[in-house]
Amino acid sequence: MDHFPTNWGRPRNDAFDAYATYPIHQRPYNGPKDTFADGVQRTQQPIVTGTSVLAIKYKDGVMMAADNLASYGSLARFKDVQRLHQVGNYTVIGAGGDMSDFQYIQYILEELSIDEISAQDGHELGPVEIHEYMSQLMYARRSKINPLWNSLLIGGFKDGKRFLSYVDLLGTTYTASTLATGYGAFIAQPLLRKAVEGREDVITEEEARKILEDSMRVLFYRDARSLNKFQIATISNAGVSITDSMQLDTAWSFAESIRGYGAQTQ
After folding, report:
1. Distances in Å between the alpha carbon of 105 and those of 163, 208, 229?
2. Which has the closest alpha carbon to 221: 261, 166, 175, 176?
3. CA–CA distance, 72 with 49 (Å, rounded to integer)
4. Threshold 0.70, pTM exceeds
5. At a CB cut-off of 8 Å and minimum separation 6, what does 39 contact?
6. Of 14, 133, 147, 265, whose CB neighbour count within 10 A is largest?
7. For residues 85 and 240, what is the distance between their CA atoms, to the nearest angstrom?
């Protein structure tokens, strides 16, 4: 029997407790219970996500690009998110996928950098070490059935050597002279390969920037989760440089000639 008058169908007034039942008790629930209802919960899918990150090698180092959009489902929710993050003096990490998981990765890498500095042993983490650490971290989280829902590009330049690699939520890793995550792996990667592969040692910084800008423009036209506001990171012997947000010059006049667009029927 329910002995609490506030549960007998009477109107409840939180400002006046006529039956002196404060604190107001909850009706006990004696129905069926899910065995795992109070267990540890895992992220089932990414919620606020970033789309493509692009990266290429050029003559003097590595260049990366990513837009500033974080989408809430199909809603272009946050338009000032920096998805390129500097790690130490030689490395930049770019992330697609869940932005809260990327914030956690940034925190982890910051702690790692502090530990490395505190050791005062003369060693500094480079892109190879960051790549190895992230590959182990992502695979460990995957093995616990609790992955970090990200695709990461890690680019850097140390001791005269360029480095560019990919790590995803399963711990899959590989390196190449051109890399892309998200929708860019389908749309931009062929463009990057055509422009870069075989020419990595002759492409100048200006040419590399134009290649990435052209690819970001194509992604803005074709990827519904992208934005025409983006940043470019340059990693070379001179150090790491991440630009402020830039606006792409875009034009939609070409759409009139696309079959099926607007009022066209043929």
Report:
1. 20, 28, 23
2. 261
3. 7
4. yes
5. none
6. 147
7. 10
